[in-house]
Write a structure and sequence with these properties.
heterodimer, A: mainly alpha, MetI-like fold, two-stranded antiparallel ribbon, 13 helices, 72% helix, flat, B: alpha+beta, Rossmann fold, OB fold (Dihydrolipoamide Acetyltransferase, E2P), five-stranded antiparallel sheet, 8 helices, 23% helix, elongated
């Protein structure tokens, strides 16, 4: 039967044969649970009992929940601080590392290492950095200069940036590598031509390097935004005595979902939060792709 | 506009010397082509003139001024790159204007200059396009436009035609030559293609392994090659070189034929190579040199190239296109004495 097909039909058969594996995978592992979660968000369920229909009750509860709005705000603070800071830092590092020959490989490994390290281990090391005198590294340094020590993780204003810092640091290595690949892809003759035309480094950076890095920047912005919107493990491990604390000051949406689902066993409510997160991720990604994709 | 001088220029990468003392004087407005096989140092020389590579020793002068320690922008040069180096995210106009970015020219003057250059290159309608909307030849012209807009003393071209297809290459070759006649700036042009060198240059610089082999007009390098390398490099198909023995005014070839050669500079008795271009070697000539059997024919229309098996090895000759000898036929090939070249075997240098 296969023999009698045209070449075009045979190509289609083969294409579908190979595509079937990921298609089935996505259907079973991704789309089905997503659909199910959306369904559960309209129901009440404590994981053991029957699911009962709740309509929009969970969403109404969410709308009136002050903790949700606090968490909503935290999540966006993570996003709006984390993404630009990590973008600028990783570009500056990559831009200079690219020009360096001496110890280039070693430094690149050094920057990449945190990305490969377990977030849990890292979070605990940073937790130690942040402790009070005489344990914490940072406060010991401050104290040795006679500066009063800072409550990093115990203060409602300092805790969120303190948790964000290691998250930025951990993602930096990956972004540096991507930026360096982008920089390497720019032909050397572009820079040589600019050199002969006698334009300064700032013009070269803004007129040549950055415009040509646009696809790289789009990728990194979308990728790191999704990462910061889904931040969880750093927060959970650094505030493990009181996850998301103090006073929900560091709690991101994912942690609230986790809390609602596996401490409160309120699956319907947790699912409603998940749907909100999903929608936010979708909208933010679409906006960024729109804004940053070629302006033509 | 200015003249250019290279004085004992050398270049080393670590302990490897790749240029061994290049000296050359280029007159104001001259079109000089550097030609040679890859790795001969021609591009390195050009990049040193541009200031993109440092000079290990020696002096580069542009307009009578030593430029060794000047930045590229201070040397009053412009360069056209092999891959054009035009910026894909900028319009043609912005690309050309980029060459003027660092100049203090008032804005209306810049605008006027861009229009002028676009006019010369016949690109006025293309100014708002992006490079991706241009053909290869048009991109090449944008690159030339960006170089022209600053009106530099010296234009440097680094194999600018090698990314174009054969037909376009021929066309751009003419355009660049016309442009030179029109604007009259000094041009240094690097290529590995001897046809480009022959057709465009006022003078050709032939390089090999970091040494200049010969400097001369296309006529000189073709008709009086300085050595066997130049003799074989310039002209297609390559010059035939036949081993022989020089004794006074005649050369005895491997097959025993004695060939009378024109007056030589260094005579005496020595091993030599007798050089004769296929274009000058014909069957049934009045001055026969060598006989052999035709093994292959390549008809070119007006003429036919014949490959002839002789006691001195396979040689190439040109026969009339209408009545070429048959494969297997024995032919007697000859050339006018003034078209014979004699080279010393030991040094490769020309004796004629």
């Amino acid at each position: 039967m296969y023999r009698n097909l045209t070449i075009r039909q045979k190509q289609i058969v083969w294409a579908w044969a190979f595509l079937a594996v990921p298609v089935i995978f996505y259907a079973v592992i991704r789309f089905y649970p997503t659909g199910n979660a959306i369904l559960i968000s309209f129901q009440n369920w404590n994981l053991l009992g029957d699911r009962t229909w709740a309509g929009l009750e969970n969403y109404a509860k969410l709308w009136n929940d002050p903790v949700f709005w606090r968490v909503f705000k935290n999540t966006f603070v993570y996003l709006l601080l984390g993404t630009p800071i990590s973008l600028v830092l990783s570009f500056i590092i990559a831009y200079h590392l690219d020009k360096l020959r001496f110890m280039h490989g070693f430094l690149r490994v050094l920057y990449f290492l945190p990305f490969m390290t377990s977030a849990v281990a890292m979070a605990w090391v940073w937790r130690w950095f942040y402790q009070d005198v005489p344990i914490g590294l940072f406060n010991n340094i401050l104290a040795s200069f006679g500066i009063p020590q800072i409550k990093f993780l115990q203060s409602t204003t300092n805790a969120l940036p303190a948790v964000l810092a290691p998250a930025v640091w951990a993602g930096l290595g990956f972004q540096v590598i991507i930026f360096m690949a982008g920089l390497r892809a720019i032909p050397a003759s572009y820079y040589e031509a600019a050199k002969i035309d006698g334009v300064g480094w700032f013009t070269v950076l803004t007129q040549i390097t950055l415009p040509l890095l646009r696809p790289t920047i789009v990728f990194i912005v979308v990728f790191s935004s999704i990462g910061f919107l889904r931040i969880f493990d750093h927060v959970f491990n650094m505030t493990t005595n009181n996850p998301g604390g103090p006073l929900n000051a560091t709690k991101p949406l994912v942690l609230m979902i986790y809390d609602t689902a596996f401490n409160g066993f309120d699956m319907g409510y947790a699912a409603a939060q998940t749907v909100v997160l999903f929608t936010i991720l979708l909208i933010v990604s679409l906006i960024q792709l729109r804004l940053l994709r070629s302006t033509e | 506009m200015a003249n250019l001088a290279l004085r004992s220029l050398t270049k080393s990468y670590g302990s490897t010397e790749v240029l061994h003392g290049i000296s050359l004087d280029v007159a104001d407005g001259e079109f000089v082509v550097f030609v040679g096989p890859s790795g001969c140092g021609k591009s390195t020389t050009l990049r040193m003139i541009a200031g993109l590579e440092e000079t290990t020793s020696g002096i580069i002068e542009i307009g009578g001024r030593e430029v060794n320690n000047l930045e590229p922008k201070e040397r009053d040069i412009a360069m056209v790159f092999q891959n054009y180096a035009i910026y894909p995210h900028m319009s043609v106009k912005k690309n050309i204007a980029f060459g003027l970015r660092s100049s203090n020219m008032p804005k209306p003057d810049k605008e006027k200059r861009i229009r002028e250059v676009a006019g010369i290159l016949d690109m006025v309608d293309l100014l708002d396009r992006k490079p991706s909307q241009l053909s290869g030849g048009q991109r090449q012209r944008v690159a030339i436009g960006r170089a022209m807009v600053r009106d530099p003393a010296v234009f440097l071209f680094d194999e600018p035609l090698s990314n174009l297809d054969a037909q376009l290459r021929t066309q751009m070759r003419l355009e660049i030559k016309k442009l030179h006649q029109r604007v009259g700036n000094t041009i240094i042009f690097v290529t590995h293609d001897q046809v480009e060198a022959m057709t465009m240059a006022d003078r050709i610089v032939i390089m090999k392994d970091g040494h200049i082999q010969q400097v001369g007009t296309p006529d000189e390098v073709f008709h009086s090659p300085a050595n066997t390398f130049v003799a074989r490099f310039i002209g297609a198909p390559s010059m035939n070189l036949l081993d022989g023995h020089l004794d006074g005014a005649s050369v005895t070839l491997a097959g025993g034929q004695e060939v009378t050669v024109p007056a030589l500079r260094g005579g005496g008795i020595r091993k030599v190579q007798l050089g004769v271009r296929p274009d000058d070697l014909h069957p049934g000539s009045a001055n026969p040199i060598i006989t052999g059997k035709v093994t292959l024919r390549e008809p070119l229309g007006a003429e036919t190239l014949i490959y002839v098996d002789t006691p001195s090895g396979e040689i190439i000759a040109k026969a009339d296109g209408r009545t070429p000898p048959q494969v297997g036929e024995t032919v007697e090939l000859g050339a006018d004495p003034e078209n014979l070249h004699v080279f010393d075997v030991a040094s490769g240098a020309a004796l004629s």
